[in-house]
Amino acid sequence: MNQRLEKNLVPMIMKTFEVLEVFRERPRGLTYMELVERYPRISRVSLYRILCSLDKLGYLRKDERTNRYELGTKFIELGRITEARQDIVRIAHPFMEKVLNQFGETVNLARIQSKELVYLSILEGWHPLRLFEIPNRQQAIYCSGVGKAIMAFMTDEQRDELLDKMELKPLTANTITDKKRLLEELESIRVSGFSEDHDENIIGVSCVAVPILNGQGRAIAGMSVTGPTARNTPAKLIEIGTFLKNVAMELSREHFGLSENVPAAVAK
Are 219 and 251 in contact (CB under 8 A)? Predict the structure, then answer.
């Protein structure tokens, strides 16, 4: 192993994950004494502290009847998140390629997770001048096309909870920092079915975005096209947005249960 990397390893973290590895082989769990026998190089005190900490955090659970430690619900949650992320990236990829082939601009797939905008996949554009910069994950929700597209198709409760904990800071002169104005824009996005970002996050960069909807017409992710404002004129953004909306609706209906009877802009 690289000496610099070796120097920066944290011994207790290494021991913790060494202990966790055994649960892949023993899904029914192990007792403390079985783990002591399994890991003689780890002191009993350290091992007990590791088990107590993982139990407290929900990564392990102790069955008080058998005294066996088993994997906890946190690993189930993480597994579902990873599975869902890989699944939507795989499913959305050919639809993203369709958009890329049509316009040659960068296509992004993102979702809001734990009050942050997380980019799941990026297909870079073909043009000599390609602009893409991952913005601040929380600020990007309210001042990026894809963040606004997702937020517009949340439930009112989800949207309000998100906005209540968010400070609308100006990133450029075009950033919307007034909550009432932002809510009006989200309502407009619900009607049109796509959102636009005109230099709101980064000067010189514009984008258009659409939600990917589930069977209830709620956003589970968003897809956007990003490029220089010089190329993405207002008329061009409308052209891209219309195409992008049709692609996203096709994706939503084929793979995420959106009914043909549910329009792009769903009722509250």
Answer: no
Residue 153 φ then ψ, to 5°:
-110, 25
- Amino acid identity of residue 236, one-letter, is K
Residue 19: exposure state from Cβ atoms within 10 A (0-12, 13-18, ≥19): buried
The confidence score (pLDDT) of residue 215 equals: 85
What is the value of pTM for the model shown?
0.67
pLDDT for the residue numbered 265? 47
Q: What is the pLDDT of residues 195-215, one digit of tens each?
A: 999 989 888 889 999 999 988
Which of 223, 170, 166, 232 lies closest to 193 in space, CA to CA? 223
Pull the structure tokens for residue 67. 């005294």
How would you write the chain as a 3-class SS string?
CCHHHHHCCCHHHHHHHHHHHHHHCCCCCEEHHHHHHHCCCCCHHHHHHHHHHHHHHCCEEEECCCCEEEECHHHHHHHHHHHHHHHHHHHHHHHHHHHHHHHCCEEEEEEEECCEEEEEEEECCCCCCCCCCCCCCCHHHHHCHHHHHHHHCCCHHHHHHHHHCCCCCCCCCCCCCCHHHHHHHHHHHHHHCCEEEECCCCCCEEEEEEEEECCCCCEEEEEEEEEECCCCCHHHHHHHHHHHHHHHHHHHHHHCCCCCCCCCCCCC
* Structural domains of the chain sorted by starting position, each given as residue range(s) with its CATH number in brackets: 3-71 (1.10.10.10), 81-255 (3.30.450.40)
Close Cβ partners of 264 (under 8 Å, ≥ 6 residues apart): 193, 210, 245, 249
Describe the strand order of the beta sheet including 30-31 as a list of residue ranges: 30-31, 68-71, 60-63
